[in-house]
Design a protein that fits this description.
The chain is built from five helices and five strands; from the N terminus they run αββααβαββα. It is α/β, with parallel strands linked by helices and 159 residues long.
């Protein structure tokens, strides 16, 4: 799969958002929502900061773009995210009518695009989200690995 220069720019921004999330103590996941070559919203995980289990990076950018567009439906958009979306986020992509998903690396425990289930490929759904994986997968996986290694190290020192 070849990715466009725009895809690369958007995923680079998503990785920057993931790093910012890590700096705040959040799991380093970042997302960018674009329509054409216009970024509508970008952000990172904030479940801890906002005390909100639904404050995944994907949900946050869908909310921001929906407010910006005055519409919860976001046709013609592409979501770039550093980690394979979970079931909740996949459902939100379908309801928002996102056209395309580009994610960096798989999430073997909770990823619902292909790791634990093919939510977006369910023929019963009334909207299909095209998806591709692998753009900056190594960078995203390394960021996550480093975050959790540091977290485990901090917990061991604290005990």
């Amino acid at each position: 799969m070849s990715f466009s220069e725009w895809d690369q720019r958007c995923m680079t921004l998503a990785l920057e958002e993931a790093r910012r999330a890590a700096d705040r103590g959040e799991v380093p996941v970042g997302a960018v929502l674009a329509r054409g070559e216009v970024v509508l919203a970008h952000g990172g995980n904030a479940q801890i900061e906002l005390h909100d289990a639904t404050a995944h990076a994907e949900i946050r950018v869908l909310r921001e773009a929906g407010v910006r567009d005055s519409n919860y439906r976001l046709p013609g958009t592409t979501l770039y995210v550093t980690l394979e979306p979970c079931t909740m986020c996949c459902g939100a992509l379908v309801h928002a009518r996102v056209e395309r998903l580009v994610f960096a690396t798989r999430e073997p425990r909770a990823g619902a695009v292909l790791s634990t289930g093919g939510v977006l490929d369910n023929p019963a759904l009334n909207h299909r989200v095209e998806w591709v994986e692998g753009l900056y997968d190594t960078e995203s996986a390394d960021l996550l690995r480093q975050f959790f290694q540091q977290r485990r190290g901090d917990q061991e020192q604290g005990s």
